[in-house]
Structure formats: structure tokens, C-alpha cells
Specification:
The chain has 408 residues and is mainly β. The protein contains one helix and 24 strands.
């Protein structure tokens, strides 16, 4: 008996000692070996270029499902990656303005791209897809300031502003609650000029719309809003609705101010979540009065505005910006950046993409640091973190490109 015990201990010690040491996160090529070296300055870092045609800029990545029906009546997310699409923003077909596009995240830079919004004169940013895949929220400057709009995924010519019921400027970064049995809910940030700070705002949405395919496909190169008397947009009349279509309507409100913060992201709910607690992660502005510096930390809060908890603080040297969640809601990814001069100043020098447990602790750097500007990370169910990065194209011109790296 003692001999067997000794042998068992020896085998255990040997197996532990032979385990491979932990290596850096996988940054293998996205499609094949020919993609190696697409990182900054041909460094050979092997980051996966998700959407890198030389003539395109791609930024503000987000994930969602382009489907018409319910995913699950309980609001749980389907983790099957085959239904997921990568949404992003590009100025491909416009001069100086941006629209929302979508593509399969598994197709690399060779995959087909679907255009989602079609405004030739204004910009759309910060796409966010509803948990059932029916609607898309985004920020647009079509009325002279950034506001939050919601549209049916399959007919973005019909769209409505949902942020005009709460006073504020620079309404950006909408994020949907994963729970929608009793109606939809968005969180976004807005700038309050009187207080001189950004606020997190929750808004309840009651949406009525039933998609019915038209008898004949129609061109989507022009559109017009409904419910908003905008004379400036009369130049985009769009095709008239047919009897096969149901008008799109949204009732927004009440609005709830849950405190200061920027770039909110709602914690996802997956089938693997044993115990779900709704939380919102965001950038929290921290002013260091002794050194007259402003930085940002990663903080979460409950939807009622209580329980603010900081999980990462870079001190007076670094800010933590653009946080988002892992698919299971147990980790957070964010970008590090230099300090901000003022809360509203957006001239940042983003650096690396990092991962940290929701409970806090030591953060893990996922990117190699070869490119000094990486930000807006989103964590896909395929185990990779997608983010936008500033680099040079073949002509030596600066552009934003979406890459991915193993979450580790």
C-alpha cells in the first residue's frame, strides 16, 4: 500500500513539473500564414486583421445577431457563434461621415460586408444590437449634436431618437440590457454642461414593429426618419411604405440618472450564468486634486445607481477606458491610456488592451504594445477580443483597423 502511494505521489509530481509554462496570448494569423506581419510596421506580431482592406477605416466594433425572431424568452444569449455578426463603423462610401456595417467575424478581411445604415451626410457611431437581434441602437449627429437612435435591424430607414427626453449633449455609447421580457432598456452617457460632467442614463423602451419582407427588394440608398419633424432630412424621402410593412414606433421613458460616468456597457447574460446580477461597467472620472490630474478607472454600478465598485485604477499615470464584458460576464476588458486633461477631452493616447476579473486583482495585458493606439475592445464568444487600432496602410496613410487577440 505504501509503495502504491509513493508511486502515485511521484507520478503527480512528475506531471505537474512537466506542464508547459504559461505563454503569451495567442496572436496567430487570422486566415493563414500569408497574413503574418499585418501588424504595425510589418512586425510579425501575427495579430488577426478582422477587416483590413487597404482603402477602409474600421472602428467602434460590436457584436450582435442579425435575426428576426426571439432568441430566448428568458433573455438568455445564444452562445452559438454561427449567428453572431461583427458590427463596425466605416467611412467607406462617404467623405468625412461614417455609417454602420456588419460582417462575419470568422471571414477575415476577405468576407462580404453588409451595410446597415445609409446616411450620406451625417455620421453614425457606437452600434449596439438588441439582445433578440431585432433592433440596432447607435449615436448620430444628424440633428447637430450626438443623439441615440433606434431602428429595426432590417429596415434602418425607419428610425427614432430615444435620447431627446433627457437634457444633455454628446449622447453616446448605447448598451442594451440582456433582459427584455418586460420591455427593452438602454443605458448611454450624456454630457451635462451645467454640472460639467458626463452622466449615465437609463431609458425604458416600448417598441412596436413586426418585420414583413416586401414583395420586391428595394434599394437602401435613401431613407427618412419617422416621428421626428426634421426639415433638414426632407432631402432623404426614401421609398414609400407598402401595405406589407408595419410602421415602427418607440415609446421612450422614464429616464433615470444613475450617476456620473462614460462609455457604459451592460453585463451580458449567458446560459452558463449560474447566478446573474445585472451590472453596468463604465469609465469613472477620477480627479487627483494634489497633482491636478484627471484619470479614469474601471467601475461598475447596479442599474439602480447603487453599489459603485472600482475594479481597476491606473493611479495618476494611466487611465482605463472603453471597458466591456466577457461573454460570461465574469471578466472585463479595457484599454489603458494616458491621463485626460479634462473630463470632456477625448484626445487620448490609448495603448494596450487588458483583461481583469470582475472581482478585481491583477490585470493581464493582451496586446504586445507594438502599436501605441488600441482601444474599444469587445470580447466575442469565440474566445478572442476584437479592438480597433491605429496603424498605416500600404500607402503610408494612417487608418483605423479592427484586429483581434486571444483573450487568454
Amino acid at each position: 500500500m505504501r509503495l502504491y502511494s509513493a508511486l502515485a505521489i511521484l507520478v503527480l509530481v512528475f506531471s505537474v513539473s512537466c506542464k508547459a509554462p504559461r505563454t503569451a496570448p495567442d496572436e496567430t494569423p487570422y486566415v493563414d500564414e500569408s497574413d503574418r506581419g499585418t501588424g504595425p510596421s510589418g512586425s510579425g506580431s501575427g495579430r488577426r486583421g478582422v477587416h483590413t482592406p487597404d482603402s477602409w477605416n474600421a472602428s467602434y466594433p460590436a457584436f450582435g445577431r442579425m435575426i428576426e425572431g426571439q432568441v430566448d424568452s428568458s433573455g438568455m444569449a445564444d452562445i452559438e457563434s454561427s449567428n453572431w455578426m461583427l458590427f463596425f463603423v466605416s467611412d467607406k462610401d462617404t467623405e468625412g461621415t461614417t455609417n454602420v456595417y456588419a460582417k462575419s467575424p470568422s471571414s477575415g478581411d476577405r468576407g462580404s460586408v453588409t451595410q446597415i445604415t445609409f446616411d450620406p451626410m451625417h455620421s453614425e457611431r457606437d452600434p449596439a444590437v438588441s439582445p433578440d437581434g431585432k433592433y440596432i441602437a447607435y449615436a448620430s449627429d444628424m440633428r447637430g449634436k450626438w443623439e441615440i437612435f433606434v431602428a429595426p435591424m432590417h429596415d434602418t430607414r425607419q428610425f427614432l431618437c430615444v435620447s431627446d427626453g433627457f437634457p444633455g449633449e454628446d449622447n453616446r455609447h448605447p448598451s442594451w440590457s440582456p433582459l427584455y421580457d418586460d420591455g427593452y432598456q438602454l443605458v448611454y452617457h450624456t454630457y451635462n454642461a451645467t454640472q460639467g460632467l458626463y452622466l449615465l442614463v437609463l431609458v425604458d423602451l416600448s417598441i412596436e414593429y413586426k418585420y414583413t419582407a416586401p414583395e420586391e427588394p428595394r434599394e437602401m440608398d435613401a431613407f427618412a426618419p419617422i416621428g421626428n419633424p426634421l426639415v433638414a432630412l426632407a432631402m432623404f424621402p426614401g421609398p414609400e411604405a407598402t401595405e406589407n410593412e408595419t410602421p415602427f414606433s418607440v415609446s421612450a421613458g422614464p429616464y433615470t440618472d444613475i450617476g456620473s460616468g462614460m462609455h457604459p456597457s451592460w453585463r451580458p447574460k449567458s446560459r452558463h450564468s449560474r447566478r446573474y446580477e445585472p451590472l453596468i461597467i463604465f469609465e469613472n472620472v477620477r480627479r487627483h486634486s494634489m497633482e491636478n490630474k484627471v484619470t479614469r478607472s474601471v467601475t461598475y454600478v447596479k442599474p439602480d445607481g447603487l453599489g459603485r465598485t472600482e475594479i481597476y485604477d491606473g493611479g495618476t499615470l494611466y487611465s482605463a477606458i472603453t471597458p466591456s464584458w466577457s461573454p460570461d460576464g465574469d471578466y472585463v476588458v479595457f484599454a489603458t491610456a494616458g491621463k485626460y486633461a479634462e473630463p470632456g477631452e477625448m484626445d487620448i493616447m490609448a495603448e494596450d488592451i487588458c483583461r481583469i476579473p470582475l472581482g478585481g486583482g491583477q490585470h493581464v495585458i493582451l496586446t504586445s504594445g507594438e502599436n501605441p493606439r488600441n482601444w474599444n475592445p469587445v470580447w466575442h464568444v469565440d474566445g478572442r477580443v476584437y479592438y480597433q487600432s491605429l496603424d498605416e496602410n500600404d500607402a503610408g496613410e494612417m487608418r483605423t483597423t479592427i484586429y483581434s487577440v486571444d483573450a487568454g
